[in-house]
């Protein structure tokens, strides 16, 4: 290109113009085109319309480039580019070709079906959980405030009302802090029958902070929030109103009877509204909130000390970040406020702080990482599937070499051949994808049922439009990717070469190299997933073998709500008086209920406990051994407190190591204000009286020496929060006679002698006799409670196991078929070597080596990849070291062993080739 | 899509323009001739596309000119009709005229003058 004179230049940016022409237009035309454009442009500029000239220049330039590209593409595709006729004939051709090979077609479609199905299933899980759009305005700034104790990422703690009020006063980085006490079960009485409903107590600020209003009616006013025990108003969920109440349009102003009180309905929340209470963090039961009551109304339901005590941590805060504030800043702010509170109340606040959780973390935090990892695993399976199908097509392409060569020689264009092969794989992917999506639809439903145990009630895991669109994308991608390599290879071969007769050595070698790479990739992927599966399975196993302390088999649990109020005249003398009255009633209930139910033949043993076993609802007590001064904070130890009736420990399977169980007379001591008795676990014994016999020892509860307790029994440690809770190991447990503080909600633990439904029926029968207002809910076998908590690890382990088996199968098939192919192609060579006297063993090892080199390479890569991914996967493991060399060694050698066995078949065949037969046939 | 030896309509226009311009046929002039004489607005890119095709079929041949300042120092690419192109033009035009013979009145009907206007 000579440019001796640059006196005239085109419109800015000339560089772009040159770049475009340089990339689109054939080299020998570039100068002429740019020159022509400039010449005319100059004329137009001179005639005085520069702006139009610019427009003209660029439009001409673009269209020239576009046309040049089109011409180029046309030349390349032999004139058949994307013509509909061409596509149709491609499809016809591909269908015929697939129909001729039913074995290959079935295999490839199955591989596609499994891989695409797995991906679709995982996508629907992601869609139903992590991608949930929360129906709140500016939901990104909403935060739930939850408690932490010493460690920041402690996941289970709620907060007490005084603590949340402190934060409301002291935090500068957040907006208003609303309070919710979710998942409270209350008896709802209608037409004489009482059934449990799910209630949340909220402050009047709750709905405003969330930014939602009712579908109709109104939400709570501040007055209703503050007036103690005097504003019986209720808001209903849309589901409760439309389902249970039959969408009664005159609902506003009518009333619901809850626990013997009459509440006026003032509003109904909109359809699709989801509540923080829908996630049963405390109870482990994820039920949709049905009714909201003002927090002030919690007083008649919750003992006043549970309302005012700093230790009664049952509440969550909800707030919005102030604009421009980050979570980190809020955490610092919270820590500051918590430090102030700790100085004021060293007993109750020591080590306590809080954390802010986004809605996604609040609802799906426990599964976010596992789900992401599983999605990545599914993608890996997809990659494997693509490679696998590509390998199958490749083998087939090589088998069709002659046909393809003839077609090339007859003038078929390469692109046409590439297109045809991609059409084939696309059809396979389409077939497999359809099957896979159907498979996923069934599988997702099953998985969701098991998995949903750990999900909020609003979660809907299914094949939504988004998932289907994504799956279609995956199908297309899979089809193209799987067809590209073999397609390009088929289009590259030279006609004369392939037609020349015997399979060329060079060709075989390059195919073999492809084969080896495929084996390496497959083995590496399979190993990564196998190690993942081994780790998650170990983790699940570890969880399942954690001793809960309970004898969980055949143990039925349910909660009884001893509804109060109805039998009592409206408020006579305040809360404490009522509580005392209730206490009498509950004590009477406890004794009668236990006595009568234990006589039922369906029941082997019955005890009462509180709070519910295997939940994160726990109470705490700060205790000091009697030899120390309880006013010094360091002397006080925080322990978990459980109420149990006489015999309950035995029913649960927590057998006494020393001392005695409670008996029904222990309550008399309480009445007489004599010594209170308690049973402690080994951990508490070790903490308070190391190396001493704890029986007969005394401790103080709280800061004063007024309330002193005597240890009468010692039991083994138990995991009342569930097997996965690591934090429970921080505390010891102390057991207190149920009769001393008869809690309104009491859990019954029943050792079954027959079926659980019989026992439940017996319990209902007894309950009707003993206390007509009491309601039974939360019915579950103890093992199911454990399973519910362990839904996510279970799901992870199951999915990982599926991934691993699918990929391992594909990898082994790959190892076998690639080597078998190589042996087939090298038959002559092997026969010659045999004829020249090579011993069979030598041929065997030679072939084995050929087969195993890529396997070993793949194992190496897989081990390295797993090692580097160990940190990622560790986050979803329980008590398993993700870098433990033993796992890697075991899984690696297992894979090597199986691969060797897969290689052995073709190798033995190779060693037994009869030279005479082979060479004669040649 | 015109096949090998049968130029399409636009290719006819381009070849005729090249023939008409004889020594001075390059992008700008060809385009101008087609739009001014042939009365068909056409982009430079389309002209180049046709030239490319015709050169590929061996109907045209090109040569490079001298760089010119008005063209930013770039050379022109001149086109000349090849023998093969001329023959193709002859064949198709004579075929066209044979087919069109005696049909003038049908193809270009005279305006019916009823009131003697014009």
Supply database-style keywords.
heterodimer; A: 922 residues; 30 helices; B: 118 residues; alpha+beta; two-stranded antiparallel sheet; disordered C terminus
Please sum up the structure shown.
The complex is a heterodimer of chains A (922) and B (118). Chain A has 922 residues and is α+β, with helices and mostly antiparallel strands. With 118 residues, chain B is α+β, with helices and mostly antiparallel strands.
Description:
The complex is a heterodimer of chains A (922) and B (118). With 922 residues, chain A is of the alpha+beta class. In chain A, 55% of the residues lie in helices and 15% in strands. Chain A has 30 helices and 21 strands. Chain A has a 6-stranded mixed barrel with strand order 2-3-8-5-7-6. Chain A has a 6-stranded mixed β-barrel with strand order 13-14-19-16-18-17. In chain A, α6 (161-170) packs across α12 (327-344), α14 (359-399) runs parallel beside α17 and α14 packs parallel to α26 (791-825). Chain A is globular and about 105 Å long. In chain A, 48% of the residues are buried. By secondary structure, chain B is of the alpha+beta class. Chain B is 50% helix and 14% strand. Chain B contains 5 helices and 2 strands, in the order αααββαα. In chain B, β1 (60-68) and β2 form a beta hairpin. Chain B is globular and about 50 Å long. The model of chain B is unreliable at 113-118 (pLDDT under 50). Classes of the chains: A alpha+beta (922), B alpha+beta (118). The interface between A and B is medium-sized, with 37 and 25 residues.
